[in-house]
Amino acid sequence: MNQPLKQDSLENSSSFELTTVLIRVMAIGAGASVANLYYNQPLLVDMAQAFQVSPSRIGNISMLTQIGYALGMFFFIPLGDLRERRKLITSLLGAVILALLAMAFAPNITILELASFAVGLTTVVPQLIVPLAAQLAKPKEQGRVVGLIMSGLFLGILLARFVSGIIGHFWGWRAMYLIAAGFMIILLLLLRTYLPKCDPENSQITYPQVMRSLGQLILIQPILRKTSFMGGMLFGAFSLFWTTLVFFLKHPPYSYGSEIAGLFGLVGVVGASIAPFAGRLADKNTPRFVAGGAAGITLFSFMILGFFGQHLWGLILGIILLDLGVQSAQIANQTQVYSLLPNAKNRLNTVYMVTYFGGGALGSALGVYLWSAWGWQGVCWGGMSMVIFALIAWGSMKKKS
Length: 401
What we know:
This protein is mainly α. The chain has 17 helices and no strands. Helix 13 crosses helix 16.
């Protein structure tokens, strides 16, 4: 049987304190790096026009980015239990800089697709930062700390759409990826300066053993299985919506360009600003209760989008509730997952987040298909269906969990 990893030496140091400044640096790092995955969404129409390809072909950009991200988490995040965390994070940032430059200079759609996959594969820094923050936090503050880091992450997702929409409109989509590479250089220097060195004490366990232990965790942890599936379905619905929104806004009654489509990312900031309260609720109540309520909000958001999405007020309200629901559920789910095995947070996070972004890739692909076949109503019904599957998984969990 695989031997468990000991807690990192930094966590065992009584002199170490997870300060507010460090939490903020981690939140900035999570948000700035995860943004790389979402710059493409408001720019898909511009990319399609540049390479003269169909919406279904250009939709591969979002899908391949998320598939790459899921695979990157599967292969790289377990290294967080084996390697010094700061060095691992900065090495991955160096790799993502190269991938972003490949996006900026892609001469054709095939190279753009490959570069998009590479961006996803190497942009796994947030999923090293989140379990590190949870590990360093006091047990009674885990929900609050995870909530703050996840708020930074979600703000990065939402602001990425706004920033890329504006930059794409004025300077073109290639400029966005050049600027993103510059952001990552700055972030590399920032995290290299502020992140503490965190060496794992036990170097005897090997990478193959860690990878095999992922399967063991899935088999022996039913809460991990169900929570991961729930998260994957919710994020699938989230990705389904945001991948197709730019196509919806391009047509009547809106007829908006990429710069306006990006502005809708700011609407979701309202939901992200409320989401940290989900972490506090998860500390005081059961995370399962918070996750179920958040999934209910997500289902309601798709109802509003389906019935009233043709009206600006309905679209805005639906986006606020969608982001609030998905983000709150994510915080509650991760708080629950991290509590299962304190000495295996990175491996637990690997299982959860691979499933999470696997659901996101499925949602992106499904969204493009539903938009092409049935338009906006097909998108909304697809989103509701994924949320219903998430609620079924939530209902199958025992209340005592």
